[in-house]
Amino acid sequence: MDFFFVIFTAFALVALTGRVQERNGKGLYGVWEMTFYARDGKAVDWTGMMIITPEHFSRIYMHKERPVFQDRYEKLSDLTEQAKNTIVEALVSNFGGASGKYRIDGDRLFFIPEFPANPGLRSCEPSRVFSLDQDGTQLTLNGTTSRGYEVEEIWVKREDLD
């Protein structure tokens, strides 16, 4: 009977340690690659990278099939209307990112962007409910975007920064 108590206690300690690391963010530290993204329940073919350190984050994500455009121009007036539309399509609807600080409150990760791709979102503080798998190698984020979409993101740890 003592053997089962020791095993049970060991598993409980491992589970509790994981929860404490999750709450203080330690398990989040690392380089992450986006492997799944869904908007309003529909998978979208996006990819990205996110780096989380003890105080800062940086994340960039984009549609894999975004439009290609040439950015060799000096003034916007040098561009055709089609080129302008392509740039807007590529950058607005197919690209996102931000860098800054973050905070954790329970199971919620709050991004505090200091350098968002869209400067109009600088005062926003988007958040996601987060969970780590048992190994700490898969991070799932769920939340709502600034446009009101429900999103699910799955990230796989590529490098540990602990």
What is this entry, summarized?
The chain has two helices and nine strands; from the N terminus they run αββββαβββββ. The protein has helices at residues 2-24, 81-93; strands at 30-39, 42-43, 46-52, 56-63, 95-105, 108-113, 127-132, 138-144, 150-160. It has an eight-stranded antiparallel β-barrel with strand order 1-3-4-5-6-7-8-9.
Could you list some keywords that capture this structure?
162 residues; Lipocalin; 8-stranded antiparallel β-barrel
Task: Walk me through what this model shows.
The protein is an alpha+beta fold. It has one domain: Quinohemoprotein amine dehydrogenase alpha subunit, domain 2 (Lipocalin, Beta Barrel), CATH 2.40.128.120. 22% of the residues lie in helices and 42% in strands. It has helices spanning 2-24, 81-93, and strands at 30-39, 42-43, 46-52, 56-63, 95-105, 108-113, 127-132, 138-144, 150-160. It has an 8-stranded antiparallel beta barrel. Strand 5 and strand 6 (108-113) form a beta hairpin. The longest helix is centred in the first third of the chain and has 23 residues, at 2-24. It is elongated. Residues 3-23 have low confidence and may be disordered.
